[in-house]
Design a protein that fits this description.
Helix content is 70%, strand content 0%. The longest helix is centred in the middle third of the chain and has 30 residues. The protein has 309 residues and is mainly α. It is globular. The chain contains 14 helices and no strands. Helix 5 runs parallel beside helix 7 and helix 6 packs parallel to helix 12.
Length: 309
């Protein structure tokens, strides 16, 4: 639930930045009047991704979650082909699959990885995979919005659709549907809906580190604010990459960052448990990932490149 509180803060910040850019003339009236139906669909898909991801994540072992989430890239390849009519060369498909395989090996490294989902019902891994499909479809729709806006907006004097238009309206609709899903999400956390206001109040107290019940809120409010700032910068950079390249490229970049994040979190850092040692499988998975990135970026002949992403 505290994650949802952070999310609503993101929406407020995105719209504040959008307002400032509109007043500065960076965002034009024509940008603001593009059709909002795609943003509505994006909001529904991302909210469904959050709801299904939270419900399945509560029933799955922790290491299984990032492994199952690697189906995101496979979903993106399929949706990009179906919705955008993209065609991919063999090296790009193989590179994407190698990146996903490398992340799986790195994340699931260890002697018990074969029993990662033992004792878990079939429905929960399936629901986590479905969550990835919702998020993948939303990312492809965002790419479609940029492509469609370039065709619609004719009088922008070389400008392209501002990323904060996409970020703000997409996140705004997502917040609306997450709000509608709150009763369902609170029940998943074992919180009766009648107690939700009190829970949100205590979460706000923990965020600002005020009140008498702040156990486990060490580092607040500096650490939560640092997390929000870092996450916003990451999301803006990722959406800008999607704008200038494609959803597939942005996903490959995100996947390549997973082992890096695992390595950093294995180090002894403030407010985190003591560092842990990583198995040789982690290094092996990272090597597979790098090979996948190299294979994805092998240049293709110009004639072929005109037909593929």
């Amino acid at each position: 639930m505290n994650g949802n509180m952070h999310f609503f803060m993101y929406v407020a910040i995105y719209f504040f930045i959008l307002c400032m850019r509109y007043r500065a003339g960076i965002v034009t009236d024509e940008m603001m009047t593009i059709p909002k139906l795609p943003f509505l669909i994006i909001g529904i898909l991302e909210a469904l991704g959050v709801a299904s991801g939270m419900s399945s994540g509560a029933m799955l072992p922790g290491p299984a979650i990032p492994v199952l989430n690697q189906t995101f890239l496979v979903w993106q390849l399929g949706f990009s082909t179906l919705l955008l009519g993209r065609k991919y060369s063999w090296n790009k498909i193989a590179g994407c699959l190698l990146v996903a395989a490398g992340v799986v090996v790195a994340v699931a490294s260890g002697p018990d990885s074969g029993q990662l989902l033992s004792g878990v019902g079939f429905v929960w891994p399936s629901l986590m995979i479905a969550s990835s499909s919702f998020q993948a479809a939303a990312s492809i729709l965002k790419e479609f919005v940029f492509i469609d806006a370039a065709n619609r907006i004719k009088s922008m004097q070389g400008k392209s659709l501002d990323i904060f238009v996409v970020n703000s309206f997409g996140s705004g609709f997502q917040a609306l549907f997450v709000l509608l899903f709150l009763p369902f999400l609170s029940n998943l956390k074992g919180i009766p809906f009648s107690q939700l206001p009190q829970y949100l109040k205590s979460g706000a107290g923990c965020f600002f580190n005020i009140g008498s019940q702040t156990l486990g809120c060490d580092g607040a409010p500096l650490l939560p604010l640092l997390y929000i700032v870092t996450n916003i910068a990451f999301n803006i950079s990722l959406l800008n990459l999607l704008k200038i390249s494609s959803a597939i490229v942005s996903s490959v970049v995100v996947m390549s960052s997973v082992p890096v994040a695992i390595y950093i979190l294995s180090l002894p850092l403030p407010y985190l448990p003591e560092g842990v040692s990583l198995s040789p499988f982690f290094l092996f998975g990272s090597v597979i990932l790098v090979l996948g990135l190299i294979l994805y970026n092998i240049p293709q002949p110009l004639k072929q490149e005109s037909q593929v992403d």
